[in-house]
């Protein structure tokens, strides 16, 4: 459960969750960044892509993607956006056509582009916010 600085590597994409978010990586105050370096106890994370790492306690970080690997939880609820060119996080919007989850920005684009068809086919927007539970 408790995480160590050695659990993280330079280049990892991580999300920082402040204490009051209780580990919810979809919390509005959660911040996505990239690990620039680590030492024995601290992970340095670049949150604004300016190349400078901010010291962060490893216990407040969740790994999104190991450097160079495919994003973790791509297309899953509150994982990484399913759109291939997008690596935003979280992805709380369910696309009723692809069956995967998208970030807010992409979901808005998709809804705008498919509004008329979606209303005809589903009676609602193509992407709806929240976890979709299959009713069988
Ligand atoms: Zn996206």
Automatic annotation (TrEMBL):
Chain spans, region Disordered: 1-31, 49-69
Domain of life assignment: Bacteria
Biased composition (Polar residues): 1-12
Name listed for the protein in its UniProt record: Uncharacterized protein
Record organism: Fibrella aestuarina BUZ 2
Origin organism lineage: Bacteria, Pseudomonadati, Bacteroidota, Cytophagia, Cytophagales
């Amino acid at each position: 459960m408790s995480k160590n600085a050695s659990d993280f590597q330079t280049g990892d994409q991580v999300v920082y969750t402040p204490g009051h978010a209780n580990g919810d990586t979809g919390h509005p105050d959660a911040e996505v960044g990239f690990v620039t370096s680590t030492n024995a106890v601290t992970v340095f994370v670049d949150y604004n892509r300016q190349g400078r790492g901010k010291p962060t306690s490893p216990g407040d970080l969740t790994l999104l993607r190991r450097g160079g690997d495919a994003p973790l939880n791509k297309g899953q609820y509150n994982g990484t956006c399913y759109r291939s060119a997008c690596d935003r996080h979280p992805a709380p919007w369910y696309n009723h056509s692809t069956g995967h989850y998208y970030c807010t920005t992409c979901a808005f684009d998709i809804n705008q582009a498919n509004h008329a068809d979606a209303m005809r086919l589903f009676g609602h927007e193509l992407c709806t916010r929240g976890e979709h539970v299959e009713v069988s």
